[in-house]
């Protein structure tokens, strides 16, 4: 059976409406990151709502022919982004943040807020690699100190994508070569 | 934007290994049901593990070119069916049963066990329609009594698919015509 | 350290308002069952809302000096029963039903509805004993068939309490004597 | 009906064994904080495991006659602290961190790790006040920036308890006086 497509999580603040002018910096970055994720043949996973970074990343991915998965906090179809292909309705509220952390092979945080911080922390707790894109120096310092080997910082979308590529390659190498790692 | 593909959930006991001979009746039904779901252009959602009805339904869907979503109970990639395209790792144990109930537009139960019963009950609690396929008279009587309008019984795969088609049509009609229903 | 007090779960439909006349049969039973649970020195665990069986059981337990735990579906203090001492706000919606099933040593279902059915099924899935009190013949037949050794039926509160006592004694005997059971 | 006792959450790294010498600074602080919480008549809520800060805080509270609630990640009784009176078995893994954030009126973080960071972030996301006790300057700077009005820093147990007292008083004043706040 052919290998599954890797799932890349993109997290970020939800409050900024994507259609509001002037277009927010994080929304622009998320749009471009979504495009790049689709262009590389990866699946995009976000929080799935119709606002902010999650919406923008999904729109970007769809514009480049990608497939988008949304892990929604609510129990119904109220606030799903139009650009989500596969809405998973969890009804878990913020507890769904841990599903994002577990289901993505690599997490990219675009911008920073309490929800994004929770997702980054849960990913590090689950020993998942995280890339911070355009967050802030306080976040970079704090999370780097928490989990030095897992935390990566990118200054632009290209840098983030380079990190993701490297991390996926390392995971596949590890999966192929490192049977003993499974036993820990 | 084009409409999303409907998500059909297929639930059933996990214990029967799909490769064990003689091939179990529920596994055969799930294989055929998965094929039909893919052939109709619907997405298949299951519990995602590599055993029993969930595995068989995914194999059937893949054999017909479909896309399969697995809502896994565990936090890691331990027991994912090879036939799952999109594994969602919830780490929630049986609490993930409610995600299956919420995320599917229609749920089909193939066979019956405690986990399947939980998923059927949670779907009915969330006011989702359920089709029972090859369960047993006790299950049919019990669940029919719990939620008369939501519970449908099918004797074979063709009957189950006919129910699903009708229920999806009713939901789309309701979504298009029935704004006041949203306000309940 | 002294042994912990056993936690007894009482589940049942939430729709019947406890203050509505004529007083509903299940609410009366839940009130009396709550009293008995407190009188035996057990902790009471319910779904914690201010309606139906869960509210009545908590009121009964409080009237007899007991301690009550409520596992609430919502994220905030909106609809907590006044008779809950310890509200656990899960924000999980119906996924919290599985916490009830896991946290109680024995579950008693008083009456039957979709939510109660989910809790009974999840308890049986987790191999927890369940007592059905004043449900209906369809429920008794269905759940007995699902998990013969775990399902008990009581016709009145006294019978339910007798079952709970016996089941707790068996669990403690098993915990003390049965180390090999832990290894399954 | 008499008011419920406030629930104070104490979070912190789990890795340090409480019985290991030399006794860790965070474990000592958690022991003393647990004592103070019990002495003030508050309920203590922790992650409930038999290690690190959560275990120490529970032992402290029990030594002062308090009541302790543990919100366990696992589905069974495997690693519960002996000092937990009321174990809630969630089976949710790290998704249970959000229950801690929602159920406590105030959260105190003693030390810092990925799990503690997730709990602090989820509390801030839910608009709950948080006190950081003996974490580190990076954590203080980062979380203060995320939610300025909700984040408080204490240098010792006495300072943390003073913060908790003030925050509880403000919540009760707010609950009594501020109906319009509910509507946000």
TrEMBL record, chains A, B, C, D:
Top-level taxon: Eukaryota
One GO CC term, this protein: cytosol
Gene3D superfamilies tied to this protein: 3.40.50.450
Pfam families: LDcluster4
Name of protein: Cytochrome
Species name: Astrephomene gubernaculifera
């Amino acid at each position: 059976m052919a290998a599954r497509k890797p799932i890349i999580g993109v997290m970020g603040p939800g409050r900024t409406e994507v259609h509001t002018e002037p277009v927010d910096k994080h929304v622009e970055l998320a749009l471009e990151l979504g495009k790049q994720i689709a262009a590389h043949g990866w699946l995009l996973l976000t929080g799935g709502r119709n606002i902010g970074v999650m919406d923008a990343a999904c729109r970007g991915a769809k514009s480049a022919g990608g497939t988008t998965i949304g892990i929604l906090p609510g129990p119904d179809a109220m606030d799903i982004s139009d650009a989500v292909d596969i809405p998973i309705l969890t009804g878990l509220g913020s507890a769904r943040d841990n599903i994002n952390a577990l289901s993505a092979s690599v997490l990219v945080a675009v911008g920073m807020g309490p929800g994004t911080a929770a997702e980054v922390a849960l990913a590090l707790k689950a020993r998942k690699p995280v890339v911070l894109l355009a967050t802030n120096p306080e976040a970079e310092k704090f999370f780097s100190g928490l989990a030095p080997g897992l935390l990566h910082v990118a200054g632009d979308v290209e840098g983030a994508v380079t990190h993701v590529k490297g991390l996926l390659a390392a995971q596949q190498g590890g999966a192929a070569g490192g049977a003993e790692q499974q036993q820990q």
